[in-house]
Every structure is written in C-alpha cells, then in structure tokens.
C-alpha cells in the first residue's frame, strides 16, 4: 500500500511540502490493528501541524509505506523514500522490521525516528541517524519480571516462536528472574499443539504462562486451550508484548482474554495534551486509542519541532537528536545515549503492567508501574 497522506489546513505560499516517510504494518502478516493505530497518531499530528501553518509555511506531508511485517520490504521502502526526498523516516511497530529499516536508514544517511519497536539492538552499533521513542525491551521486560515476582510467580513458562524478538525477551526474563530465585522454561509452539502445551505446563508446575508468540495465531488458540483446562485453573497467563491492548483481542477471546497482564507505555494519568490528543484519536479510530497511537502522535511532534528549529536537511536533523526537548502526550521527550543501545533513546517512556478487567473487559486495570 503506497499512501501519500494529503496535507490539510491553510493555503501555503510556496506550496512545496516537507515530506516524511512513514513505515506502518497495514496488511497481514503484520499486526494490522497496531498499524492502524500508529498511522492514526502520525496522521493526526501531521494535520495538526498543517492547521497552524506547517513547517515555516510549508505543508508537512506523510508518505506512507506498508511494511506488512516484512524486513526486506521495509528496507526497500527506506530506499524508495530516500529517493523521494523525505527529510526523515518515522514509524514501524515490529522490532525485526524496524531493525532492517534502521540499518538501511543508517547506511543511506536518512534520519529514522522509530515510534514503537523495542528491540535493544535496533542497530548493530552506535549510529547518529536513528532515534527511538519506545522503551527498550530490556527496560520494559525487567519491569514485567518484577511484576511477576511481586505477584508471587517464580516458576514461569514461556510459549515461544523462533524470532530474535521473542528469544531476546526470554533471555531478559531469565537473566532478571534467575538471581531472584525464578526459573523460566521455554515451550516451542511450533512443536507443541495447544493441548500438548497444557500438558507441559502441568508437568513443569508453572504458575504463569507468558505468550511470546504472534497474534492471533497461535496466541488465541493457546489462551482458549489453557482457559478450558481445569488442571490450569490457577495459572496466570501473561503477554508482555501487549497483544491484549487492542480491541481485536477482546473481540476474539471475550472473557477469556481478560486478566492477562501486558506492558503498556502510558502514564497513570494523561496530562491536558494527552487528554486532548486521546479524545481526537478516539474519534478517528472509533475505539479507545492504544499507546501505539500516542507513540505515532509523539513521533510527528518531535520531528515537527526538529524541522522548525533545524530545517529539513537530513544531517542537521540527525545532529539535533541530543537537543530535542518536546512536550509529548506522555511526558517531556528528550533523547540520550543509553548503555548497550546504539540509537538515541528516550529514556524512558512511562511503563505500566495492565490487564483487561474480568468484570468489564473493555476497562483496563493498572497492576504495576515501572
């Protein structure tokens, strides 16, 4: 899908737009719901920038490319967008896809502000060209591990699929839990049916099962199998990657999808800016905006501020990351160098562990904050 999002707002004197590339998963096997929310946030912010005069009188234009969760497609999109003259590239939700995009942006000298992907090693080494809003996986997943321990869970099973992202998540959990008396056993969902996975949970005596797998397959069948197994009535199901955040989860699973704690990157209470943007996003989406939609809005807010203060020159944008100071929907945004992470990083976006309330699945309960 190749979608230039038209600018709106006042007439512009010179008419030439400042173009931003946007990478978004809009078709399967990408997480389409996440892509839809991310694009809603990006597009809303672009339209608000244009409603107040754009970038020094020039309209801001979003040039959207669908990554469909395909790293090669994302890398090719960065090539294309660079050729189209974008000032910067933004977006992406899937970590492995964002890593491919970041590598290509670094090679081409195109600034890339990653909205939502959390993999620590977004790039092979340090780069001046890439910055990120989402908290690194090691940061968020350690907070999730602390939540597990606080809730009395030390025998953890993880249902996994082959992926750098899932393997890294398993390692973060294991490394954080082991010194604190916790154990992590991995169950390969490519080798186990949901029913066989239930048998393995009983054999291991696990008190918590974490879904480190794709959505809706195999996450939804696993949840149904575990919820339907009387032997596992007391087990906690968790989803640190955030699968239950989106309305699709509740639609597919109903009550079975409630009470499954996941990571969400929102503060306990939004400020006036977050409340206003959240209301606008809800009207656009026809449902409650996820944290991913806020990440999209914040991404454009940062880039618009950089473009106004440093112009559309790519090198000037990349040089500006350490000087960014922008009020985002979820708090003040600044970038810094963080040990073990090669990109400029907002350290950190707020982190919560939440679940859908079993008594009211459309309502979220905050269980733990980081």
Total helices: the number is 11
Shape: globular
Structural class: alpha/beta
Question: Care to count the β-strands?
Answer: 17
Strand order of the largest sheet: 1-3-2-4-5-6-15-14
Could you spell the SSE succession in H and E letters?
Answer: EEHEHEHEEHEHEHEHEHEHHHEEEEEE
Distance between termini? Answer: 37 Å
Q: What is the radius of gyration computed over CA atoms, rounded to a whole number of angstroms?
A: 21 Å
Largest sheet: 8 strands, mixed
Mean pLDDT: 96
The low-confidence runs, each spanning 5 or more residues with pLDDT under 50, are 4-12
How much β-strand is present in the residues?
Answer: 15-25%
Question: Helical proportion?
Answer: 25-40%
